[in-house]
């Protein structure tokens, strides 16, 4: 598959995300949709319905709105990840791949036919409010989400900076829903961050897969390599995915030339394979990949490639399980389709769709003791902004912000004690070095 073709493919972590990030990510270009050559007799019925609505509906209707509504319904009926985008939506999506978004900082998808939080983005309004991966959004500003498409939900949560939106959340383990009133902001995403941890362990946090992610990762890895690191941790927790090109570019930096990263297969049965290039870096370090339920799609491609080739130990909890590929198709009027065109498979030929990547070592974060602290409906006086102990709520589900660094960034940094998964990863890499040095007694 050519790079031009590959750049139109998205593996967004389920997402449309709302940053509200609309986690749909897109590459440059795209195939122009053509007109079907064969006649569709069913279109006559569609025209009849359109005509009857225009003539007899109780209120005046706009033909364009009716047709766009029909298109949205058609795409939504295929699967949760296919959608029709108006010209304005399509333009927004093209801008978002650059890493700057307007909204809440919350990534959403459809799971079990419910609007589900993939993850909040670090250092954003949603993250600070205490939104957690796996939360189910049942209302947006008192409007039920049951019959909303993913794109419609995203549009509901978008708005000018400084305005507020109210989310009603159902959370596993709590009997009553929580209500969060969150102020919108401009979200700028830095997809790659790194730091040196105690024991000279390199740590790289990947928050999304954007156009420049692979290149930025190379830069950060070179910084860590210059510090003589003893091991490497790649943190993919709460990473909802992104561009297929970025996932391949990240994976190939740790694989031998020619190694299969991922393959995708459409309905014609033909498989397209993506392999590590000959000029890839192929960094050789004891490595651990951290994942959780908020790790989706492109994140799962990277984690599975490292796991299948024995390049890293995967630690955490089972990932989200989105194994489908969406292709962006521009239309003649400036609108676009986001259409599921294939499923992807790991190097060992496994599909993780609805299953997820199973960690080599399962480590659940300690449950936050917040159930009794959280106020039903999340407020006490009708004008409160999320009074359900958000700091405690965040600790159980989200990794700490990767940019919380001491003044001297060149010195090894301590691991936050509440991050049990990261603590275990650092402990394992320290042990790795010790066991490697063991020699049989003479």
Q: What can be said about the biggest beta sheet?
A: 7 strands, antiparallel
User: Using DSSP, what is the number of strands?
Assistant: 22
Classify the helix fraction into a percent range: 25-40%
Ranges where pLDDT stays below 50 over 5 or more residues in a row are 1-8, 12-35, 367-398, 400-406
CATH homologous superfamily (4th level) name of one domain: 2-enoyl-CoA Hydratase, Chain A, domain 1
How confident overall, as mean pLDDT? 80
Distance between the termini: 56 Å
Shape: globular
The structure class reads alpha+beta
CATH architecture of one domain: Alpha-Beta Complex
CATH class wording of one domain: Alpha Beta
Q: How many helical elements?
A: 11
Radius of gyration over all CA atoms, rounded? 23 Å
* CATH fold-type name of one domain: 2-enoyl-CoA Hydratase, Chain A, domain 1
Strand content: 15-25%
Your description of this structure?
The chain is α+β, with helices and mostly antiparallel strands and 442 residues long. It has a domain at 192-323 and 342-366 and 400-434: Alpha-Beta Complex (2-enoyl-CoA Hydratase, Chain A, domain 1), CATH 3.90.226. Helix content is 25%, strand content 24%. It has 11 helices and 22 strands. It has helices at 3-6, 42-56, 63-76, 87-96, 125-129, 150-157, 213-225, 244-251, 298-308, 390-395, 420-436, and strands at residues 9-11, 16-18, 83-85, 100-103, 106-111, 114-120, 136-140, 143-144, 164-170, 178-183, 185-188, 192-197, 201-206, 231-235, 242-243, 260-265, 271-275, 287-291, 313-316, 324-330, 336-345, 361-362. Strands 1, 3, 15, 16, 17, 20 and 21 form a 7-stranded antiparallel β-sheet that branches. Helix 8 packs parallel to helix 9. The protein is globular. Residues 1-8, 12-35, 367-398 and 400-406 have low confidence and may be disordered.
